[in-house]
Design goal:
267 residues; mainly beta; elongated; 15 strands; Leucine-rich repeat, LRR (right-handed beta-alpha superhelix); eleven-stranded parallel β-sheet; two-stranded parallel sheet
Length: 267
Amino acid sequence: MSHNEINTLPPNSFHNLKSLLLLNLTQNKLTELEDETFTGLDRVENLFLDKNKIRRISNHAFSEMTRLKKIDLQENEISTITVEMFSELSSLLYLQLASNKLTEVPDNIFKNLKALKDLNLRKNQIKTLHSNSFAGLSKLQSFEFDHNQIKSLPDGLFKDMFSVYYLGLGHNLFDNITRATFGNEKAGANLRYLLLGETHIKQFEDEFFAQFPRMTSLYLYSCPLKTLPILRFCPGLKYLSVGNTDISTIYPCDLCKLSIFLVKITF
């Protein structure tokens, strides 16, 4: 049903398709999802709604789809999400909300998504985060949040991200990220990829990177850094991108104990 001109789905549109496992509605002209739109689809595991014109999703549009593992809502016009939208989706693994019009991530919005592994919120218009915006996401492995409009990161924002290995925060407006942003020593302990390029960060706390002992790739390009951060806490670092910064000098001790095989530096 993808790549059509479908602009509305009446209630109970699919109620006779009780064995359906995948529903693909990519690239249609849908604007709304009502409460009973997906009635009867309790076995569907993959739902593709990307590249539509969806502006509004009813709080219980997905409530019967308790076996969902993936929802793709990229490239729509969604400006608001609520905790009720995801309240019955305890099996969800992948949630794609990139390229929408979200401006805020409310407290505890994803608290019921206990199994979520991949969350994509990149290319929205998000300006506001709260300390519990990502509470409960202890199984999350990949988080993409680049290309938004965030000016500050609240303390404890990533406190429950014990499993995250990819954290994409680049192309935002914040000028500071600290150990308090992660809230505790376990958050970030499995992090491998940290993307902070195209932010306004000028410097880091001396021991900021001590909480990422497994980090292998660090992206700091196009930041107004004047000195290289202390990286001796990341002995496995293999990729460091600091191109287009204000760093003028690198001393050998800055890179001691590292096994870097590729360093991008532009003066």
